[in-house]
Design a protein that fits this description.
Layout (H helix, E strand, L loop, with lengths): L1 E2 L3 H5 L1 H9 L5 H8 L7 H19 L13 H8 L7 H22 L6 H4 L10 H9 L12 H30 L9 E3 L2 E7 L8 E6 L5 E6 H32 L3 H26 L6 E2 L5 E6 L2 H10 L6 E5 L5 E5 L6 H15 L12 E2 L4 E5 L12 H15 L4 E5 L8 H17 L3 E5 L3 H8 L4 E9 L4 E8 L7 H7 L4 H11 L1 H83 L4 H22 L17 E4 L5 E8 L2 E6 L2 E6 L3 E3 L2 H10 L1 H12 L3 E3 L5 H18 L3 E5 L6 H10 L5 E6 L9 E6 L1
Parallel strand pairs: 1-11, 6-10, 9-13, 9-14, 11-12, 12-13, 21-22
Antiparallel strand pairs: 2-3, 3-5, 4-5, 7-8, 7-10, 14-15, 16-17, 16-20, 17-18, 18-19, 22-24, 23-24
Amino acid sequence: MLYPDNCQERLGFTEIRQLVSKNCLSPMGQELVAKMQVMTRYDQINKFLRQTHEFKSILENGEPLQINAFFDIKALIDKIKVEGTFLLEEEWFNLYISLQTVFSVLRFFDDRKGVYPNLEALFEHLPIEKNLLREIEKVLDAKGRIKPNASRELQEITAAISKGEQDVRKRMDAIYRQATASNWVADGSLTIRDGRMCIPLLAEHKRKLKGFIHDESASGQTVYMEPEEVFTLNNKLRDLEFDRRREIIRILIALTNAVRPYSALLLSYHGFLTKFDFVRAKSLFAMQIEAGMPVLVKEARMRLVNARHPLLFLSFREEGKQVVPLNVHIDQHTRIVLVSGPNAGGKSVCMKTIGLLQMMLQSGLLIPVDEQSEVGIFDQIFADIGDDQSIESDLSTYSAHLTKMRYFVEHATPKTLVMIDEFGTGTDPQFGGPMAEAVLQVINNKKARGVITTHYSNLKLFAGNTEGLENASMLFDNRNMRPLYVLEMGKPGSSYAFEIAQNIGLPREVIELAREKTGSNQNRLDSLLVDLEREKKTIHESRVALANQQNKAKNLVAENEKLKLFLEENRKVLLREAKAEAQNIIRNANKLVENTISEIREKQAEKDVTRSLRQSLQQELAKHQVAEEPVKQAEPASGAIAVNDWVKLTDSDTTGQVLEINRDNLVLAIGDLRSVVKRSRVQKISHKQLKKEVRTGSFGAKMTEVVASFSPELDLRGMRGEEALHEVEKYLDKAIMMGFPSIKLIHGRGDGILRKLIRDYLKKYSQVSRMEDEHADRGGDGITYVYLA
């Protein structure tokens, strides 16, 4: 129930209804939009919201749902019901187009059974009677005209008319040529008068040709004559035309009689088209305002995340501006939000946004909020917005406000949403403030929910000390003297009356005099609110900066650990390869020694041969000696370690530059990473050795860069199923190769199709140990965490 009667108009719902109506294809859909009202039944609201959400998905995904046009066929059906009546060609064509639309839509959903269950409920148990189309197609062509062969009689009549027209034309041409040769014809060619073909003759020769004069020129010098021979032929044609018209009427009557038994089914089709047009219009409007499907709850509460006023959003988009989103919650603990702040700071827009979105949702419209928002259902919506003074009723502004307050107090319940703009204004503040406080107390005692805007300090103090009431303020940049249009819960706001007056250039003596007259207590309160807002803003900025630094440090530590593991794995591989190569060298050396000894024995130790064999052995061993030299440890560079020196870790081949020295700890820059190591774990190296290390470590540097640039989060929203699976496969291979313990896949909620597809696909990987949803406050089942074994 809405109070007062102009509640919809004051909150902007009337404009919303007009914008939705513009998207309708038919007057039937526009009638349904005009009848759209606020509902209070959960199942009914949920059904309408889900139907709109499903249709919006069809439009966004570019599904092949063809809707050309449809007409209001109810009047045609009423005409068909009457015995002896018949529909005209144009009426049959309108009915035919509408039936084509019906069957096209039904075929679309039949091919996708179960995908859009709420839309399927619109035509549940609705049969497809294609005999209707076939009956009409027997009579009408593709342009909606009667086919020449719609019946055997019509075909014969049409052929006779065609032959008669040819005879008339031939005879007329012959007479015209003869008259022209005799110079009887005036300037001009054959012409039509009264639907008959005539020859323009000079008046003095009109007696020389037998026929019927249909007209003459304004000067009387030219007459338009139909020759006697042609006149007889034309009369026969006219009779054939009458026969054709009678046959067409007979065919239309027969068609009407054949379709009349389907009148009830046609009415069902008409109802389906009306509902379908209505849902389509709501879905198009939802796309225009970028609306989504919030979580619908049965309780009288709400939690709006990034809510935007739809009318303001459309207006700002044309101007290329952005709407500042609104975040607010109202529940059994925070029942009434008291919004204060400067004039033109957005208090009224904040309140109207909440009221309008609630009204839209309970009317079955999607609203421009994030999908994790929660919106409940209210049985009553009360609004006191604007000036309702009435000369006829002898009501002043304040009297009109009090009349509404009386109704609010008498009828408010825990399921009532109350919205009051500029609470307590319209009379002496000395009395208006206490009266408003008393009304607020009674409404709060009745557990009603609501949003109230005010400038009164006593209401701010009352809200701060009363359970169920919550102060909120519209933030204001008191340095640049401009509103920020951001709602902050938990504290009252200053009106910034003196600051704004000073900013617009009001003389200083006027401002100082006003301060004196305001009173010291009020000045102290306003100053306290200003200081509190300034301090809170500074704390908020510091907290954000600290959180960013903590996140950055956390990411650096995580990347450092991953890099350390990666380098450790590489070190093990290199050691394994070095051991294998050493074993090969030893094995080859043993063979060489044994072969040399064997040859010495065979030659019976001759000196020259022995010397030659020893030299060959020495040369072969020298080759292996040279090959092993690069593996030797580099000699440490001389001197103490200082800032900007290059060092090498003793337990690995990693090099880095010294950034800071803190006693026994060194801060090293290793590529893009920062690491703290003990002085005892490093040794200083020269520039020559550094170049050598850079050459040998180029592969490791590349891998370090790959690891550092890898993000453990993949956004799949907006992708098709096949495209998303391809991205997941590539991403998962990289994560497994780099040894990441877990990854985060963002796929959104929607209808849950993409989430199920991805999770079923991940089950085939043996490296995936488990999957779970993100926390409900940070995305819930719209995000999947994948833990890797």
